[in-house]
Structure formats: C-alpha cells, structure tokens
Amino acid sequence: MTRSTLLRRAGLNLLLAAAFACTVALTPAPARAGGLPDSANKVHIQAWFPAPVANDGTRALAVRLRLASGWHVNAHPASLDSLIPTTLHARAGGSAVKLHTRYPPGVKSGITLGNTPIKVYGNNTTLNATLPPSAVAAAKAAGALSVSVRVQSCSNRGICLPPATVHTRLPWHQAG
Known about the structure:
Layout: H1 3-26, H2 29-34, E1 43-48, E2 59-67, E3 71-74, E4 87-92, E5 95-97, E6 100-102, E7 107-113, E8 116-121, E9 126-131, H3 133-142, E10 144-151, E11 153-155, E12 164-171
Antiparallel strand pairs: 1-2, 2-9, 3-8, 3-11, 4-5, 4-10, 6-9, 7-8, 10-12
C-alpha cells in the first residue's frame, strides 16, 4: 500500500470517527442509554387527592396524563390484545396497594388496524381511582403514595415507542 493510500484511509477513518462522536454527543441521553427512547420520553403524570379521606375510610385519587404534543397512549382496555393498555398502579411503604380504578372511555384515534378502530387517551386525560381503607392506612403510615402508570405512547402519525412506566410520589398530607 502506498503512503498516499494509507493517508487517505487514515483521513477517512478520522472523518468517520468524528461523525460518530458528533452523533453520540447530539443524541439525547435516553436514546444513548437503551438504543431508542421509550414512552417515558413523551408521557408524564400529575397525581393528587381531590378530597380528604371519606367517612367510609376510602380516599379518591386522580392522575392526569401529560402527553407531548402530537402523541397519545392506548386506552384501557386496549383496542386489541397486541396493544399495551394504560394501567394505573400504586405502592405505599414499598408494597403494592389495591386501587379501584375507573378508566375513562378511549376516544377514536382515526387509526384502524384490521377492522378495529383504535381508542386512545390524549393529553390531560384523567384516571380516577379509589383507595380502599387498607390502602389508605398503608399510605398514611408510609407518609406517601407512589403512583405509576404503564403506558405505550404513539405519535399521531403512527410511530409507537416501547412501553414504559412513569412515576410520581404523592405526599400523604396533600390537602384534598
């Protein structure tokens, strides 16, 4: 191999290495860590207690989905078995607590798979649940309720990201 061929190859390798370094530097951290971003990049949640503990020992919980513009999540239940439904979960003191969740009806997305219209939740959809007395006691003892929502977000153009679980912590003393 001639010296000029070696220099051209070295220059090309240096150029490719620089291009790769720029790509890595400009790639968002979640994409670098796992290859692709997931649904947590497009969905956040906001949780609150809309009222104090009721006379029967239960407490209402509300969780609002905050979605990036142009994105939605699958409704619960999902329109097809192959889709990931949006699901609400809670923990207190490290243990799962039971919720009685009332999922809102999904809205037609305009997307049809086979003959099935796909129903979704959009930005600001609120999931409502009731904590039974046992969950109220556990959350009160722990001083907080950890709330999580499992979602799969999809763009309105039909690009879906891998599912993710998004979390928030709700202090027990939060006023209703």
